[in-house]
Amino acid sequence: MQIYLDYSATTPPRPEAIAAMQTVLTQQWGNPSSVHEWGNRAATIVEQARTQVAGLINAPVPESIIFTSGGTEADNLAIMGVARWYTAPQHMIISSIEHSAIAEPVRLLERWGWEVTRLGVDVKGRVNSLDLKAALQDNTVLVSVIYGQSEIGTVQPIAELGNIARTHGVLFHTDAVQAAGRLPIDVQVLPVDLLSLSSHKLYGLQGAGALYVRPGVELLPLLGGGGQEMGLRSGTQATPIIAAFGVAAALAAQELAQETPRLIKLRDRLFTHLADIPGLIPTGDLEHRLPHHVSLCLESADGEKLSGKTLVRQMNLAGIGISAGSACHSGKLSPSPILLAMGYAEKAALGGIRLTLGRDTTAADVDWVAMVLKQVLQRLI
């Protein structure tokens, strides 16, 4: 038996998305920028997908969706697209638990002289809105806080944080890669100016993402070229992958009301099964949480013998796919920076694991995984 519980890393492309890709590859393979019939057919596909992705988050106009190569590029376009407007370094605010697609471009800005404030989080991984208020400066130009954290599952108070930024005339961006398709998002209600999405996190294909840009917000592009994507992302669009993205987004929107409560029920079932394992404690906010996300850590992790990576390897031998929060550099384990930012000891931060559920996950899968994980831990501890 093989069970995949790493849906936050990537999701299996759904058949409808694959079919959309195959149709484009065989019938509508033209360059969307060409003015002849072959190009027009491809352009129609891209615009249809733009409308479908816009519908997932209730974007006011389809043109507010800018297709990219993935969530990482969408995040980089948000950060650097704002920063490039300024000839002199300004001030930017992010959380201390951002994905590296935000953390790394911001680190680059720091090397260029920008001032960056990283908001701390509590032990559950939540940002305090009062900290954001206190961090704002006259030269703050952007706040970026992740919607749902991929390692610990915590969902941030995005509406509250976005309102604070908007009240002070500061642009607000959120990386919604993990939340889109799993939680309802309405950018006409939510006070966000920029929002990142990824196709392969919602059963589309790897290689496409999108940045929602609120009408009236101006960015400078990262790439010079033919001016595709409203001038913000030059380069011939990957029509087959974008078509699949659109189909996956439309189906996610249709299924959200049924799928989200189903995932929450399975998620809580798994947490309950694992609650009595000594030394294995839940991480993140159990109330404000992504519906598909279970994360835990070993309080007494000690490196190679007992770490999150060890559990991943042992579970893989049992045919179960999960992931770990700690990183491995040149053969040496490093504690999870997310867990460290939340105040966990270095030992515990080596022992983080993540089990994320999806469309194909059943109650029987959850029960089996819990049993196997318990057996693995009994052997190792």
What attributes characterize this protein structure?
Aspartate Aminotransferase, domain 1; 2 domains; 15 strands; alpha/beta; 381 residues; Aspartate Aminotransferase, domain 2; seven-stranded mixed sheet
Which helices and strands occur, and which strands form pairs?
Elements lengths: L2 E2 L10 H13 L9 H20 L8 E4 L2 H13 L7 E5 L4 H12 L3 E5 L9 H7 L4 E5 L13 H10 L3 E5 L18 E5 L10 E5 L25 H36 L5 E3 L10 E6 L9 H10 L2 E2 L1 E2 L2 E3 L2 E3 L2 H5 L4 H4 L2 E5 L6 H18 L1
Parallel strand pairs: 1-11, 3-4, 3-5, 5-6, 6-7
Antiparallel strand pairs: 2-8, 7-8, 9-10, 10-15, 12-15, 13-14
Helix pairs in contact: 1-7, 2-7, 3-4, 7-11
Question: Can you describe what's shown?
Answer:
This protein has 381 residues and is of the alpha/beta class. It has two domains: 3-9 and 256-380, Aspartate Aminotransferase, domain 1, CATH 3.90.1150.10; 15-252, 3-Layer(aba) Sandwich (Aspartate Aminotransferase, domain 2), CATH 3.40.640.10. The chain has eleven helices and 15 strands. It has helices at 15-27, 37-56, 71-83, 100-111, 129-135, 158-167, 239-274, 308-317, 337-341, 346-349, 363-380, and strands at 3-4, 65-68, 91-95, 115-119, 140-144, 171-175, 194-198, 209-213, 280-282, 293-298, 320-321, 323-324, 327-329, 332-334, 352-356. The strands form four sheets. The chain has a seven-stranded mixed sheet with strand order 2-8-7-6-5-3-4, sandwiched between helices. It has a four-stranded antiparallel sheet with strand order 9-10-15-12. Helix 6 (158-167) links the parallel strand 5 and strand 6. The longest helix is centred in the last third of the chain and has 36 residues, at 239-274. It is globular.
